[in-house]
Amino acid sequence: MPFAYLLTPASLAQSALFAGYYAYLNINVCSYRRLSGVAIGDGLTIGVSMPAAAKTDKEKQVAARGLARAFKAQGDFWSQTPFALIFLSISELNGLPYKWVHIIGSTLFLSRVLASQLALLDTDRKEAVAQDEVKRYRAAEGGARAVTGVIMLGVGFYNLRLGWKPLKDFLSF
């Protein structure tokens, strides 16, 4: 049994959820790459192309827009998740009860999934989605990002509170 498992079992269980969802986002990007024929890049800027599974130019354009959204969703998820999981694991190492690790980790997971799923929505097509709906989607996406920020600040302050006295002793003030 690995040593880290003994120290952070709740964070380990939470990380499996994040890894599974990231794999889903990665498969989503790969499928849009195959459809659009874009090997490198986000599909909207110049990139390296490959043979596309889509037959018509219209299908390729739709797939390229889908690739850009999938790329954005994957990037948003990837940019926030590692640091939040690291901070959560450090909090667990410092004695945060397992119950709170699971509550915070589950809230973080749901907020990141919500933000990623909202980023995947096709809000570029005006005929498909009303503008007030687009505003609600973007507000919800921003709210999910704010939840992630609050969680990161919360576990950061928890760790700072525990480490403040040793830090003061080290700095001799």
Automatic annotation (TrEMBL):
- Entry keyword set: Membrane, Transmembrane, Transmembrane helix
User: In which broad location class does this protein mainly occur, judging by the first location in its UniProt entry?
Assistant: membrane
Q: One GO term of the cellular component aspect?
A: membrane
Q: Which domain of life is it from?
A: Eukaryota
Q: Where in the cell is it found?
A: Membrane
- Gene3D superfamilies in the record: Membrane associated eicosanoid/glutathione metabolism-like domain
- Protein name per its UniProtKB record: Uncharacterized protein
Organism, by scientific name, is Ceraceosorus guamensis
